[in-house]
Design goal:
The structure is a single chain. The protein is α+β, with helices and mostly antiparallel strands. It is built from 4 helices and 4 strands; from the N terminus they run E-E-H-H-H-E-E-H. Strands 1-2 form a two-stranded antiparallel ribbon. Strand 1 and strand 2 form a beta hairpin. The protein is elongated, with a radius of gyration of 18 Å. The N and C termini lie close together (10 Å). The model has no long low-confidence stretch (mean pLDDT 90).
Length: 117
């Protein structure tokens, strides 16, 4: 069914007026966890390594515990490890996002009734 009006919103968690977590940041963290590499995650997201590293540094600086730990290069190259706290953060964000989407859908239904659609 076509809906001329709809509520569109995404979950963004803010701390001290700045974005701490949103869909893009969670996707970056998920890819770092999956690949064990900031470089591989940044390539998959089509962003520069520097932008990815800036985002991860910002998340680490804002979070109460480390989220991603960088491993310097060696014989096998470097990498990145997601901490247990980081994994919990991803899982909790996903759960909150699902609940948020349900709330938005409910509000959208109210809007459709209000507008007579």
């Amino acid at each position: 069914m076509y809906k001329p009006f709809r509520i569109a919103n995404r979950l963004e968690i803010v701390k001290n007026g700045a974005c701490f977590l949103d869909e893009k940041r969670i996707e970056l963290l998920r890819l770092v966890w999956q690949h064990g590499s900031i470089l591989a995650a940044s390539k998959e997201m089509r962003m520069s390594y520097q932008q990815a590293w800036y985002i991860i540094s910002d998340i680490n600086a804002t979070a109460p515990l480390p989220v991603v730990v960088r491993q310097r290069g060696g014989a096998n190259g470097g990498g990145a490890t997601m901490t247990d706290y980081g994994l919990r953060l991803i899982n909790r964000y996903v759960a909150l996002s699902e609940r948020f989407d349900e709330c938005i859908a409910s509000l959208d239904n109210d809007l459709q009734e209000m507008c007579g659609f």
